Amino acid sequence: MLALSVLALVAALPQQTFRLGDIDLSAVSQGWGVAHKDVSVDGHPLTIGGTQYAHGVGTHAVSQLTLSLDGKAIQFDAWVGLDDEALQEGSVDFHVVCDGKEKWSSGVMRKGEPAKHVTVDLRGVKTLYLKVGDGGDDINYDHADWADAVVKYDGKPPKPQQTVKEKPYILTPKAPHTPRINGPVVLGARPGREFVWRIPATGDRPMAFSAEILPSTLKLDPVTGVVSGTTPNAGTYTIRFGAKNRLGEDHRDIRLTVGDRIALTPPMGWNSWNCFATAVDDAKVRLAADAFVKAGLVDHGWQYVNIDDCWSVIPHSNDPVLGGPTRNEDGTIRTNKKFPDMKSLTTYIHSMGLRAGIYSSPGPTTCGGYTSTYGHELQDAQQWANWGFDYIKYDWCSYSEILKPEGLDNLQKPYKDMQAALAQVNRDIVYSLCQYGMGDVWKWGESVNGNCWRTTGDIGDSWSSMSSIGFSQDGHEKYAGPGHWNDPDMLVVGWVGWGPQLHPTRLTPSEQYTHITLWSLLSAPLLIGCDLTKLDDFTLNLLTNDEVLAVDQDPLGQPAHRVSAKEGIEVWARPLADGTKAVGLFNRNDEATTVVFRPSEVGLPGSHLIRDLWRQKGLGSFSEVMFTIRAHGCELLKVK
Ligand code: GLA
Q: Is the per-residue pLDDT at 1 higher than 50?
């Protein structure tokens, strides 16, 4: 009787309902931002096709979550769709996979469409995998919601599976103690301009620097290797720089081309956005400049220290630090109180032989809502020059209030206006267009004097974001060259976070090798996006391989294109100025894959000397060579 009533009680126990938002959402891997409980990825109420949902998970494509079940779960239910908050139309596709078998998929969904309901039977299932794909294009504006998502279960509640992390592995040997001059072999400048540059050289200090046939308008500090002064008349000056320490010496001929072109190799430096975003301030920028020297990044050619958004005043804000008058009576732009003295900041940066960068937007406000340049183009350009800036990143944000982002005339207008303003300023300022690739900017960025132009939306620190951006650059290579570069956005290695809270990049070590390899093959501007005071050995090693950086900085300036893509393996190649080829072999698969590479694939039939650039080691002469490449990893080779 008793046994019977216990059984009856168990049978009568109500099944339990588990809300998806209640799991530890750090287990969600996604292409941009972080997953949130009960709100969208941008923190708004979950809203699909005009309907609000109180519960669920707001995420962003490509999003993946794996839940372990005990076989006693009953059912998964959710309403899915693209969140209404996305500023422009994205496209996503939802998938529910049980024990490796797809049980439901939404098809491509777009903004404004009503949510679709998904119900999947979970009886007997051990692994539930929830994925949001990018709808077949890129991940821009793919704000995706699993609204009212619940698992009904009888046994144990679902548990998120954290993916096993790959351990950092260092590939590159330390630079020798003897002097070695690194960095680009060509420098571009306009005549009669303030000039600062530091000879990038590794090797033990103290080191004595020298320069043969240095134009008389320039001077060299023999202790630091900083060259400063005013650029000479137009012409090409081949300067023989030397670096000597107690163990030996090195020399390198560097061609200073004084004419109308700058950025003859892609700019290399740091930018505050991917780490600090709104939390940037004067002290953090100075610390970044200090770190360039302390960590030795300057010895490898890292040069620009760039402030992104959030240095000006927020209009109509009562915040004592960020608010106040946006401009002086004469119209010159004011900084907020986090940047008390821009001139002193750039002087500090220049004193180390580094260059300084700043950010604005052609609209009335920046993407972050700070004062920007609309109606003050010449005045702002002049002010940046007066402050001593050497680089301007010019975003599109809020210009849509002035002109619709449609048609080439509208898209080019603000960039032509700033081109005209910069032309009147007596300073070499790298002009970086940031309008996310609208109107195929790579086809006309050079015509507005752009030194680089973003080809995509913002990068995030995930494999899906980095790889979908990087591997979609094929075809853009023909528009880039010395002085004008495609920019697939900044680097997401090291400690990033877009705000005060930083975290180590979510890219695995292999994915980070792929990131730097691909960006170098693409001749991309290399702007480190992490907190440089937190550089670990792995990240530093990754950013200081001179043979890899030399691919990015190759003076021929011809970016790689995709040679082949088959079964998750891609081969990219570019010619280098010395007649060799740089070749990247990439494994986009989720598991290690063995690859056979033949130089003939990149137009070099027969046997050729092959050098492994990450390990800085000759492998021998081959007509065919085999590599086992880690999941999402790569090999970077130089083929003679
Ligand atoms: C845009 C840009 C980013 C960054 C932010 C600043 O999103 O693409 O790189 O500059 O604006 O608000």
A: no
- Nearest protein CA to atom 3 of ligand 1, as residue: 458
Cβ(308) – ligand 1 distance below 6 Å: yes
Cα 596 to ligand 1 centre (Å): 40
How does pLDDT run across 34-45, given as a tens digit for each residue? 899 999 999 999
> How far is 112 from 126, CA to CA, in rounded Å?
34
* CB-CB contact of 492 with 529 (8 Å): yes
Cα 527 to averaged position of ligand 1 atoms, centre (Å):
13
Which of 269, 272, 275 shows the shortest CA–CA distance to 307? 272
The answer to whether the CB of 546 is under 6 A from ligand 1 is no
Kindly name the residue from 84, 309, 395, 531 that is annotated as catalytic. 395
- Residues 66-100: tens digit of each pLDDT: 999 999 999 999 999 999 998 888 899 999 999 98
Assigned CATH topology for domain 268-552: TIM Barrel (3.20.20)
Percent of the chain with pLDDT over 90: 92
Rounded CA separation 364/327 (Å) = 12
Q: What are phi and psi of 10, to 5 degrees?
A: -60, -45
- Say if ligand 1 is within 6 A of residue 487 CB: no
The fold for domain 17-160 equals Jelly Rolls (2.60.120)
Q: What is the predicted pLDDT for the residue at 122?
A: 97
Task: Yes or no: say if 30 and 2 are a contact pair by the CB < 8 Å rule.
Answer: no
The dotted CATH code for 561-639 is 2.60.40.1180
Residue 458 appears among annotated catalytic residues: yes
- Closest protein CA for atom 4 of ligand 1: 273
Name the fold adopted by 180-258: Immunoglobulin-like (2.60.40)
Q: What is the residue with the minimal CA distance to atom 5 of ligand 1? A: 367
pLDDT-based confidence at residue 134 (cuts at 50, 70, 90): confident
pLDDT at 368 over 90: yes
Burial of 325 (0-12, 13-18, 19+ CB in 10 A): exposed
Query: 142, 148, 458, 461: which one is catalytic?
Result: 458
Per-residue pLDDT of 573-615, as tens digits, reads: 999 999 999 999 999 998 999 999 999 999 999 999 999 999 9
C-beta of 366 in contact with ligand 1 (< 6 A): yes
Q: Tell me the average pLDDT of the chain.
A: 95
- Domain extents in the chain: 17-160, 180-258, 268-552, 561-639
Enter the pTM of the model.
0.84
Closest-lying ligand 1 atom to the alpha carbon of residue 457: 8
Phi, psi dihedral angles at 109 (to 5 degrees)? -120, 145
Which of 359, 69, 315, 304 lies closest to 184 in space, CA to CA?
Answer: 304
Predicted pLDDT of residue 295: 98
Measure 385 CA to ligand 1 centroid, in angstroms: 22
